[in-house]
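Appendix B, example 12.
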Amino acid sequence: MISAIESYKHCYQEACLLELRALKPGNVGYHSDGHGMSVSQFELSAQASSEPLFSPCEGVGERILKAVNATHDAVADNTNLGIILLIAPIAQTLLNCGYNSQLKDNLARVLLELSVDDAKFCYQGIQRAMPGGMGDVEEQDISEVPNVSLLEAMQLSAEKDRIGYQYANTFSDIFEHNLSIYREYLQKWGSQEWAVTAVFLNQWLRVPDSLIIRKKGLLKAREISDMIAPLANRVLASQDPTDHVSGLLSLDSGLKSVGINPGTTADITVTTVFVAMLER
């Protein structure tokens, strides 16, 4: 019989691969590589990061650092930092309490218990991944040694970064919006891959992508969200999303040609799919 930890790892890897199979314009997937990264790197990253993320003997910060190190050793690139940051506290919650209907409440307690040490380990992981477009902030800058808990550090970043926002708001994008979108479109379209696309498009329409904001600025990020809206809304309203494959592929090519990567939206999508996989 498969152990709980192995089951969580399987759900995580399955979520990462399912997200790659979904057509997500501007983001790396089986439909198209991009931004100097390949699908094979993301496959290897999912496998390499699963072991440290679900190790039974780590805290959240250590999970993040060790998962980043494992990813870097496997692919020598920052392919999944956002995913690691989002999955680590959920993994801690599962290892503490198991999976049950109180996942969000249990997660809230884990977030409140995050320590300064968790923040220090997390900062080391972010520094190792060397993500682009981080910029400088007045308090608890990523280049410094933090003196607040990881939750407090994330709360300071929440206004500008959607991953920090998840920590500050108990992953509300996932639990209050995206899970219901995934279920709705899975039932409507009968396809896991297209249900993932629906989550991705809906998240991007609701909230401009914070990776694009960091790299291109808020006005440009809003402009891009407005630009994708007509096609995204047609896809979400359709009875058969495959009618829009050519349009989505054309948008994908156009976004990648000018370096637009809705990476944070993709990270939130993976996290949504992971929780949906646990529900099974």
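The first helix runs from residue 4 to 21. The chain has one domain: 1-280.
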